[in-house]
Specification:
Elements lengths: L1 H43 L2 H4 L8 E7 L6 H9 L6 E7 L6 H9 L1 E4 L12 E7 L5 E6 L4 H11 L4 E5 L3 E3 L3 H11 L3 E10 L4 E3 L2 E4 L6 H20 L13 E5 H6 L10 H15 L5 E12 L5 H21 L10 H35 L4 H28 L8 H35 L9
Parallel strand pairs: 1-2, 1-6, 2-5, 8-12
Antiparallel strand pairs: 3-4, 4-5, 6-11, 7-12, 8-11, 9-10
Length: 460
């Protein structure tokens, strides 16, 4: 009886992975074709010379900061080197307890100004508004602690430009990246948000916000995350563009139409993932009122960000990400398979539910089922082999293709050796880090379910 139940569970899991495999192939087809489209647009379209100058629409960069005394200046200096000239910078200090504000005062030559901000979105109280003697286009807002989403809303209230870009305080932009995002949002009709391509900064050499040498870290944990970033950003996010656009754009580097954010009341404070929630909210709002909507992603606009260097920090980060995914899916569950929301409701939301959310639960169920089957005897080795091939092998192949495409197009790491290094760490990821993160996501799922009725405000 138990053996029959296990066989049925194993067959269900194999069918699940087979279906995921087929849909992934479809995403690969669309993503790779779009990558080459963006590549030729970037390399042959002469975007940057055409867009150089102050005739471009002004953009406000919003950088929320909390206890970032070691990284904030590099982020600012990198942004100040942007070739996009019509740029304003708002740094929002969320009541940092370290010397972040003091460093900003000393390095930027801050002096107090009059607070004149129309509060379109309710936020925590602002304490001081600073101007910079050194950089006229830069201001710093010091406020009571209210969380990252609250800080972004303060920046949104303080901005007066048609476009705003959110940037994390440990992220370095390449000089051309912002121009590329602006081109993407202006050249494609009805675009409300465009996410940039994030690469792992760990392992690179940089000084005063300028990257001197791009390379993959020799530390296995950060190197495996580098491989993960290449696969995720060059595969699912750009592939989903053809089906209505992704519902996840990293808050570390995303350009928004400001009016659209104001219309949906900005970033939600009562959630564990404000950057994901606001993208789903934009999808939902525009479809509900029958407004054309495009959410995009540009692999040509690159920013470099720090990733966790310890397993404990990585667990904390990925646990939060997964709870953010579940929270957004729960909040907007009415969109799943709802034709009123177009391809977003029929394809994109189901993809995140059945593959990104359920995937970890299915995978750990597979491990447990096959282990139990082996323990009681009579394990079907063919089923087990297919499980390993579909769950681990395809991800390895996908990584190989993603790294290869990156190498012959944008080649962010500027070295052929990255291919061989990526393949090694991709294999290592599949047999170590993958299982660790599966367990992390499963535990995050149960934590969310237990805490759902007592969800606290998202801080940092």
């Amino acid at each position: 009886m138990l053996v029959d139940i296990l066989i049925h569970i194993e067959l269900f899991i194999l069918n699940y992975y087979a279906a995921s495999f087929i849909f992934s192939l479809i995403l690969i087809f669309f993503s790779f074709s779009k990558i080459f489209q963006y590549y030729y647009e970037e390399k042959e379209g002469n975007i940057h010379s055409f867009y150089k100058g102050k005739v471009l629409p002004p953009v406000t960069a919003i950088i929320p900061v909390y206890n970032e005394e070691n990284s904030i200046l590099d982020t600012i200096y990198a942004l100040l080197e942007s070739e996009y000239e019509n740029l304003k910078i708002i740094i929002v200090n969320d009541g940092s307890k370290d010397s972040t504000l003091g460093i900003l005062k000393q390095s930027l030559g801050l002096y107090e100004g009059v607070i004149i901000i129309q509060q379109k979105i309710k936020t925590s109280a602002i304490k001081t508004y600073y101007h910079s003697e050194k950089f006229p286009n830069l201001v710093v807002i010091d406020k009571d602690n209210g969380g990252k989403a609250d800080s972004l809303n303060v920046g949104l209230n303080a901005s007066d430009t048609p476009l705003v870009v959110t940037i994390d305080s440990d992220t370095l932009l390449e000089p051309k990246s912002l121009t590329t995002l602006v081109f993407s949002i202006l050249s494609r009709p009805n675009t409300l948000a465009v996410g940039g391509n994030l690469c792992v900064l760990n392992g690179c050499s940089y000084k005063s916000g300028k990257i001197i040498k791009k390379s993959i870290s020799n530390a296995p944990l950060t190197a495996m995350q580098t491989v993960d970033y290449i696969r995720v950003f060059l595969y699912s996010r750009i592939g989903l563009e053809s089906f209505g656009g992704p519902i996840i754009l990293s808050g570390a580097f995303t350009l928004f139409e400001r009016k659209a954010l104001i219309d949906v009341r900005g970033f939600e404070c009562n959630t564990v993932g404000e950057d994901m929630e606001v993208v789903v909210k934009l999808h939902e709002h525009m479809h509900r009122y029958n407004h054309p909507c495009r959410i995009g992603y540009s692999p040509a606009a690159t920013a470099w960000t720090e990733v966790p260097s310890t397993f404990a920090a990585l667990w904390k980060q990925r646990n939060r990400w997964h709870r953010a995914l579940i929270d957004s899916l729960w909040r907007y569950k009415h969109m799943i398979f709802n034709y009123k929301y177009g391809m977003t409701g029929l394809v994109v939301i189901p993809y995140y539910f059945f593959i990104e959310f359920l995937g970890s639960l299915v995978e750990i169920s597979g491990y447990l089922a096959f282990l139990l089957h082996a323990f009681i005897g009579d394990l079907n080795w063919y089923y087990f082999g297919m499980f390993i091939l579909l769950s681990l092998g395809f991800s390895f192949v996908l990584t190989f293709l993603s790294v290869g495409i990156n190498l012959i197009t944008f080649n962010n790491y500027e070295s052929v050796n990255v291919l061989f290094k990526s393949l090694f760490y991709s294999f290592l990821e599949q047999v170590t880090l993958r299982q660790y993160l599966v367990l992390c996501r499963v535990i995050a799922t149960f934590q969310y379910l237990l805490e759902k009725l007592d969800l606290k405000k998202s801080k940092w």
